[in-house]
């Protein structure tokens, strides 16, 4: 059992901060999706309703927790919350039960902004492209965050763009 799990987020962002366009990712990066799965599997994943609805199916191998303002909202194979604190609390509870060290925030932009003051670690895929989009994510400030790891050269023939994966920890 983990005493104090971290609250972490995972996001892919373009060089201009875009993370989404019309409810979808503005790129195809199968290699990054594999890294996403590896980073989140076995851990509670917290998301907003729009992110939930953008998924083709509930993310297997991890508890799916969804935040919405709609008190009548139903999400098959997920726990639904109308209260942010209750959702985060349930995430920590599940992390303890599962014996994992992190609760993962997986989107979208509104949820990232709401939880940023409480985030301990950021897994950021820096997609080396400038694209149009309607959802954005601000890069970490070196005043508050330190990059603890960076991997580049991850692009394969199936990936649309080059990208690097960075891990940022709160100072």
Automatic annotation (TrEMBL):
Domain DHFR, residue spans: 6-170
UniProt keyword Oxidoreductase present: yes
SUPFAM superfamilies: Dihydrofolate reductase-like
Pathway in which this enzyme or protein is active: Cofactor biosynthesis; tetrahydrofolate biosynthesis; 5,6,7,8-tetrahydrofolate from 7,8-dihydrofolate: step 1/1
Catalytic reactions of this protein: (6S)-5,6,7,8-tetrahydrofolate + NADP(+) = 7,8-dihydrofolate + NADPH + H(+)
EC number in record: 1.5.1.3
Transmembrane portions of the chain: none
GO biological process: dihydrofolate metabolic process; folic acid metabolic process; one-carbon metabolic process; tetrahydrofolate biosynthetic process
Pfam families found in the cross-reference section: DHFR_1
GO CC terms: cytosol
Alphabetic keyword roster: NADP, One-carbon metabolism, Oxidoreductase
CDD domains: DHFR
Record's keyword annotation contains DNA repair: no
InterPro entries the record matches: DHFR, DHFR-like_dom_sf, DHFR_CS, DHFR_dom
GO molecular function: dihydrofolate reductase activity; NADP binding
Family per record: Belongs to the dihydrofolate reductase family.
Described function: Key enzyme in folate metabolism. Catalyzes an essential reaction for de novo glycine and purine synthesis, and for DNA precursor synthesis.
Entries under PANTHER family matching the protein: DIHYDROFOLATE REDUCTASE
Descriptive protein name: Dihydrofolate reductase
């Amino acid at each position: 059992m983990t005493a104090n799990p971290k609250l972490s987020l995972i996001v892919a962002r373009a060089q201009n901060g875009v993370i989404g366009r019309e409810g979808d990712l503005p790129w195809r990066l199968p290699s990054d999706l594999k890294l996403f799965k590896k980073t989140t599997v076995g851990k509670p994943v917290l998301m907003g309703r729009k992110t939930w609805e953008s998924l083709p199916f509930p993310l297997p191998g991890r508890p799916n927790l969804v935040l919405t303002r709609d008190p009548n909202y139903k999400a098959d194979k997920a726990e639904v919350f109308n209260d942010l604190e209750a959702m985060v609390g349930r995430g920590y509870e599940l992390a303890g039960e599962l014996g994992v060290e992190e609760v993962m925030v997986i989107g979208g932009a509104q949820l990232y902004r709401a939880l940023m003051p409480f985030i301990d670690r950021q897994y950021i895929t820096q997609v080396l492209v400038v694209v149009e989009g309607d959802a954005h994510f601000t890069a970490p400030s070196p005043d508050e965050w330190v990059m603890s790891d960076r991997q580049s050269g991850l692009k394969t023939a199936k990936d649309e763009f080059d990208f690097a994966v960075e891990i940022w920890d709160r100072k």
